[in-house]
Amino acid sequence: MWKPSLASFMLICAFFIAPVHSGYDRDQAVPVEKVLYGDISSVRNITETQLIEDRNQGWKTFGGALVGGVIGHQFGSGSGQDIATVLGALLGAGVGNRYGSSTQVQALTLVELLINQEDGSQVMVIQDYDPGMVFTAGDRVRVVYLQGSVRVDNAR
């Protein structure tokens, strides 16, 4: 039988609370459609906040009902015990629903790049800010086109 442990609880929490990432990490191999080089025309840093809703609300209500039912079952006997179990489950579900709901605000730091590419086209890319790769106007960059996304790197 599976016994919950601190490690399994932390693994489950890490899965549900994992941060949002861009299309790929810099140390990850991904298929590339094309690469174009260009010069940055303008750079603008953007801070965007987003509201993160709790996707586990139903489980918190269910857990509250379960705990409330177990506690309610400890009182009374016969039909009184059944009523106490049901009332405990209802109260526990209400408490789990009300106090279990949580929303968080996450601040994302993005960088907006306007790039004049070698082929004569101009493209604007908004991507995650990377403190290890700071862009300024006039920098030479490569624009990496992936399936469904674009990424800009310094053309060193």
Verbal overview:
There is one protein chain. This protein has helices at residues 6-16, 57-72, 79-100, and strands spanning 32-53, 103-117, 122-128, 140-146, 149-154. The model is unreliable at 1-22 (pLDDT under 50). The chain contains three helices and five strands. It is of the alpha+beta class and 156 residues long. It is rod-shaped and about 80 Å long. Strands 3-2-1-4-5 form a five-stranded antiparallel β-sheet, with no helix packed on it. Strand 2 (103-117) and strand 3 (122-128) form a beta hairpin. The protein starts with 5 loop residues before the first helix and ends with a strand.
Summarize the structure in short.
This protein is of the alpha+beta class and 156 residues long. Helix content is 31%, strand content 37%.
Count, helices: 3
Structural class: alpha+beta
The first-to-last residue Cα distance is 56 Å
Main sheet characteristics: 5 strands, antiparallel
Give the SSE map:
Layout (H helix, E strand, L loop, with lengths): L5 H11 L15 E22 L3 H16 L6 H22 L2 E15 L4 E7 L11 E7 L2 E6 L2
Antiparallel strand pairs: 1-2, 1-4, 2-3, 4-5
Helix pairs in contact: 2-3
Which properties best describe this structure?
rod-shaped, single chain
